[in-house]
């Protein structure tokens, strides 16, 4: 039986476009939580029909999303499970309700709203970055001025001491002042510690890295031993859990109505809501990963029940790209600094906001 798939009808350039878009989008999803918005437009440009494209994207990215949860779950404190479950479960309900209302909803107004929230969060982050750099520059100037005054004062003291020494020498008040006393500096030579005896195996050989399995070496390199500090974790209160439940419901609903990803709506909202707190951005991305898993699962079930079937060849192609991209992005997320995440998310939010608003304006 022939393997019927739309991939065979695509040209080499169209396949390349799909692969690049999936890899880039998956990498951004793994690193900063937002990026799936670039995948669906690439499929439509390549000539894939809207229904199979949406179904294929959800099915292909679902296993990679679960993989991301497994990776991030190893970092203690990165996923705030109470907050994630409080918004994830209602998001699935909202996605199911959105599937019923998708034909009668004001899609253009909702898309404008999503773009506006993303733009607001991006502009706020940009202003915070600029303000932090200006404060750092002002602090460096103050420090540099203080160091300059210290050096000037030290030079003046040396010159005064030299003048006093000359006057003392000329007056002949003391003879000992003309003698130069050599300072003897005792140098303690510390011998290197004795190297420990090489650990030997039962066969009398030293263990070599070549004997370590590839899986063990990869696991040691990939999984970073990291813990989110307790003061940077997200411990939601009961009131915040209620807000998250309502937020998850609205995010799931608007995600289906606008055709955008749930994290694209959730992350800007949380950044704006918790802007004055010390919550680590990695915890927000971890929370959005749980929400995305709920949304994807609900979307797959609703799409299959509605009769939409994913294209098998396209799904397999995107699944490999999604796994590799999200896996690489999750590795970057583990080692990325807070400043890098903020800068990357600012650029991405502003770019996505511009594209979303432009899309809504042309509809």
Automatic annotation (TrEMBL):
Taxonomy, superkingdom: Eukaryota
Pfam family name, one: TauE
Keyword Aminoacyl-tRNA synthetase: no
Subcellular location(s) of the protein: Cell membrane
Protein topology in the membrane: Multi-pass membrane protein
Key words of the record: Cell membrane, Membrane, Transmembrane, Transmembrane helix, Transport
Any one GO cellular component localisation term in the record: plasma membrane
Cell membrane found in the keyword field: yes
InterPro entries per the UniProt record, alphabetical: TM_pro_TauE-like, TSUP
Disordered: annotated segments: 142-178
Transmembrane segments: 6-30, 37-61, 81-102, 243-271, 283-308, 314-333, 340-361
PANTHER family: MEMBRANE TRANSPORTER PROTEIN, TRANSMEMBRANE PROTEIN YFCA
Protein's name in the database: Transmembrane protein TauE like
Phylogenetic lineage: Eukaryota, Viridiplantae, Chlorophyta, Mamiellophyceae, Mamiellales
């Amino acid at each position: 039986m022939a393997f019927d798939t739309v991939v065979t009808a695509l040209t080499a350039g169209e396949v390349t476009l799909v692969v690049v878009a999936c890899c880039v989008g998956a990498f951004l999803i793994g690193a900063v939580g937002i990026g799936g918005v670039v995948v669906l437009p690439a499929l439509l440009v390549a000539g894939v029909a809207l229904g199979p494209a949406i179904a294929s994207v959800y099915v292909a990215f679902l296993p990679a999303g679960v993989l991301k949860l497994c990776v991030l779950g190893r970092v203690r404190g990165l996923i705030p499970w109470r907050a994630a479950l409080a918004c994830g479960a209602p998001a699935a309900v909202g996605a199911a309700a959105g599937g019923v209302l998708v034909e009668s909803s004001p899609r253009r107004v909702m898309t404008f709203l999503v773009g506006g929230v993303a733009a607001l969060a991006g502009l706020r982050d940009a202003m915070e970055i600029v303000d932090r750099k200006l404060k750092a520059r002002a602090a460096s100037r103050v420090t540099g001025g203080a160091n300059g005054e210290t050096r000037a004062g030290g030079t003046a003291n040396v010159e005064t001491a030299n003048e006093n020494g000359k006057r003392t020498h000329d007056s002949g008040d003391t003879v000992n002042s003309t003698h130069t006393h050599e300072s003897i500096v005792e140098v303690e030579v510390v011998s290197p510690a004795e190297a420990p005896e090489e650990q030997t195996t039962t066969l009398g050989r030293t263990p070599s890295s070549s004997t370590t399995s590839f899986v063990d070496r990869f696991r040691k390199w990939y999984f970073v031993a990291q813990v989110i500090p307790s003061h940077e974790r997200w411990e939601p209160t009961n009131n915040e859990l209620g807000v998250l439940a309502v937020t998850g419901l609205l995010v799931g609903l608007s995600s289906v109505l606008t055709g955008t990803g749930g994290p694209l709506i959730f992350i800007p909202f949380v950044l704006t809501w918790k802007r004055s707190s010390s919550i680590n951005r990695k915890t927000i991305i971890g929370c959005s990963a749980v929400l995305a898993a709920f949304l994807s699962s609900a979307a797959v079930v609703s799409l299959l029940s509605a009769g939409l079937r994913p294209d098998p060849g396209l799904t397999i192609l995107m699944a490999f790209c999604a796994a590799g991209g999200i896996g690489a992005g999750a590795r970057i997320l583990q080692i990325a600094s807070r400043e890098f995440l903020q800068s990357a998310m600012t650029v991405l939010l502003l770019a996505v906001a511009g594209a979303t608003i432009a899309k809504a304006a042309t509809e």
